[in-house]
Amino acid sequence: MAKTDLLFYLSAFLFCSGLLIIFTKKNAIMILMGIELMFNAANLNLVLFNFQKTGMEGQFLALFVIIVAVCEATVGIAIILKTYHYYNTSVPDQISDLKEKP
Amino acid sequence: MMQEIILYLFIGSSIASVFVMILNRNIFYGALALLVCLISLAGIYALLEAEFLAITQLLIYAGGVVVLLIFGIMLTNKISGKPLHTDSHNWLSGVIISTALFGVLVVSFQQVKIINAHNDSYLINHINKVGIELMSTYAAPFELSGILLLVCLIGAAFTASSFKKKTNG
User: Fold this and answer.
1) What is the ipTM score, two decimals?
2) Under an 8 A CB cutoff, do A63 and B116 touch?
3) At a CB cut-off of 8 Å and minimum separation 6, what does B21 contact?
4) Which of B21, B60, B127, B132 is packed most tightly, with the most Cβ within 10 A?
5) Residues of B numbered 27-86 whose beta carbons fall under 8 angstroms of chain A's beta carbons: which are they?
6) What is the number of alpha carbons within 13 Å of residue A66 lying toward its C-beta?
7) What's the confidence (pLDDT) of residue B23?
8) Tell me: the pLDDT tens digits for A56-87?
9) How far apart, in Å, are the Cα atoms of B103 and each of A26, A94, B109?
């Protein structure tokens, strides 16, 4: 397959659209989805560079990136649930006071 | 030839689902579009001879993370019959910054000289090699990732649990 050069631009596009989602969306879970999209763009890049050569280092790095991304997602969801329990909102702009509301 | 058609199909579906994620206001549809994007990326991985990574992507991302995100959406939005809308802001600066970064990345990818030392090795069993390497060369990161997963499980369960402390300290 000689058309794999197109996939580099796909990974760049995925990374930039994840950044755009993080910038524009207000909900915290949508921001988490943007972070997952950026992780996947980096993974696609790793797999692509691994495909160009012999050896499997890129695949293993991508595998461990997936594991760390899963940990990040679970802890992020737990923190979002806890802040929702305190502040009754999942929009980070509306969480502006440090003290718990009475 | 057939492979290229399938590759273009996966690329098109991932780009379309990303556009749905950006432009749609319903956050639940955003999660489903993320699911489509992750599945098509798993297909691309399978075409790039990373079969184990494709299966891992399907099992962990499409099966675990998206379900977790949908749980989060359902638990943090008041379900009252109306659709789960989310607002958006900072459109101008976000579009400017992300298109600028995209331009930089495209220019730098055009300047990369890719030495394609790949030989068509479709007959090699890659999953066998993954298993052997994971238990020999990459044994230490493998065990460390197990510890990381355990710490993350305990931390997430403790953070999201709702029991009150008895003492007022």
Assistant:
1) 0.90
2) no
3) A17, A21, A33, A37, B30, B33, B34, B37
4) B21
5) 27, 30-31, 34, 37-38, 41, 44-45, 47-50, 52-53, 56-57, 60-61, 64-65, 68-69, 71-73, 75-77, 86
6) 26
7) 92
8) 889 999 999 999 999 999 999 999 988 888 88
9) 26, 34, 10
